[in-house]
Fold this sequence. Notes:
By secondary structure, this protein is α/β, with parallel strands linked by helices.
Amino acid sequence: MPLAPLTSDKLYRVAALNGLSDACKSTKHLTPLDEIVGQERAQHAVEFAMSIKEKGYNIYAIGRNGLGKRTMVMRYLNRHEPNGNSHALYDWCYVSNFGDTRCPKVLKLPAGEGCSFKKDIENLMKRLVKAFPLAFDNELYYSRAEKLKSELASKQETTLKSLTKSAEERGISVSITTQGDYQLVAMNGKEPHSEDSFAALSADDQQTFENTINDLEVELRGIVRKLTEWEEQYSDKQQKLDENIAQEVVGHCIKDLQLKYKKVVDVKAYLADMYADILDNIDIFLEENEEQVALAYASLDKKMPRRYQVNVLVHQSDTRKFPIEVEESPSYHSIFGYVENATYKGTVFTDFSLIRAGSLHRANGGVLMMDAVKVLERPYVWDGLKRALRAQKLNLSSLEREVTLSGTISLEPEAIPLNVKIILFGDYQTYQLLQHYDPEFKELFRVTADFEDDMPRNDTSEEHYARFIASIVHDNDMLHCDRKAIARIIEYSSRQADDQNKLSLHSADIANLLRETNYVARASNATMIRSSHVEQAMLNQELRVSRLKDHVMQSFVTGTTLLDVHSHAVGQVNALSVIATSDYQFGAPSRITATTAYGSGEVFDIERSAELGGNIHSKGVMILSAYLASVFGKTAKIPLTTHLTFEQSYGGVDGDSASMAEVCAIVSAFSGLPLRQDIAITGSMNQFGEAQPIGGVNQKIEGFFDVCGIKGRTPGQGVIIPESNVHNLMLRKDIVDAVEKGEFTIWAINHVSQAIEIFTGNAVGVEAEHGFYPSNTVFGLVQSKLNSLRR
Length: 791
């Protein structure tokens, strides 16, 4: 009984949209989907990981680009606020460590209070800058300082007067300079002795003067020591006076802050340290020389005014919002932060105020999402990330110090406690590499979110997909799609999935098609997207990327590529293959020929010998050789050597989808029976001759159909495919129409013998006793010819 060809309803599955109500006429009447359709498995994985707070439950999201991995995670996190009952959020600030400026301290403040604390400190500094000069520039301060100074001057003057009077009574004049130098001179009445007058004195008088001067010198040195002690006492009293005034000023200005932040432990301790440091550095606020102020700002000494600034590293602007960071360029500095350097008059300096946050700082308490390949491409990023996750601390270390041997001076800021979930997006190959080569990967990324490429197609999923289309329309402010346009897009999705019973989950492809369809509709001044606009957008897409297809098809027009689609030929069959570029694939028929010569039964694969055949193709040839041997060589070796090749194949050939075509060509060469050239075949087979499914079946059929159009159509033209590929059929409308009209035929087979019967028009034959086939069958004819050669 001849094999019945496929009917047109098997070639394309129309989207009936039974899941939508009859009242739904367009996407305007659909509720947009707020989640990614068909990714329940991955969503459950994300939900599980986010609910586990222990270390190591980070996520690796597996899937090809365009599946909406990031969109799904973002929508889930925005919809389910995972921070509701977990760790609280904080603001993080760096401030000066007054004991060691190289090790800045970190302050942990309640979320949202970092900037207000910074402003409070700035206001405090402004008040102190104004208050200190006022406190030290008033009559009360001057009178108290003058009193201390007068007391010192009075004591000094009284003591010096007493010494001067005592010296005058003994005939000695005492003079003391402001530099502390003194001079004792013997007097001759009211005038100092000259050298001559002193020399005229008797030796006893001269000795008396010398002894008196020596005694006065001893007494004067004692007085000088007293004066120094009195000056030191005066300086201490003056400093004590300044400190008392400073304490009054600082205490008055800072008491409100201390009261405001008394419950914040870190801030309370910092204010106490700052209070003490200000008292030690009052002159910072009394500096009047602008040049000195500028130098102070550019220096790293303790008198730097910026030492009291607050560097708000992370500020939670919305205290209720879960921090979600997406790092597009995961370099070491962008993730872990860095310390800037500043230059002033040729001097390079840095301090805590130049510390800058990284994405890990901003995501602390939330989620950081990154592309796995980009993380692995950047030097030191992966090691730094693992180190931070293991320690659960964020150390801001200089990358330059990490990678060099020099002891460059840099800051060592206090580490920040880290509580973050890392989500890496990547493909399966990267995932396997990390699992194989990094033993720490499994411990740090314990949850795998595996994203599906497609989903089952049924009434419910079509309804969800329609709502997904509506969400894209709403989000991008597009024209609404009518019911037929929705159906056509769903059918396009099935075509992308290469399966009538599945829908593609590559949301990027659907979004791109909708954008281009919206452009087509608006260009035609339409008020709604219709199926004709979808068709036009798909044609535009194909036109942009089909240059290679047009070039290949032109070779059939000109006759450059030899192909017969009308007659019969021995040992010659039309096989189907797929040619793929980075963004497009199409089918094109190829001629396979087989020739035989007396030999030892080998099948000589010319492609393999010429190193143009891939491993899978070679395996297919070996399998068909085994099948032929099992049919025709059970009792004796096949006395023929077969040469098999793809004609006009100048590039590599791989895949086993031509193995059934090759068997047909070889059986034709063995039997001498011609094969129909108006039929093409695709499909692989096993050692028992059973047809196995192949890929790209739609493109292969369409490619042969187009070539038939070029060479001239006849009613008998058609294609043979494996029966297991029927569910993959989502053919073009013109092919479906041609099949419906009887102008093109598609057969679905489950064994290679059925293909031989279609090609030759003769029965293959059923094996009888002792392994013989009836003489009037294809296999019987082959058997008789081989037996005659054996004799």
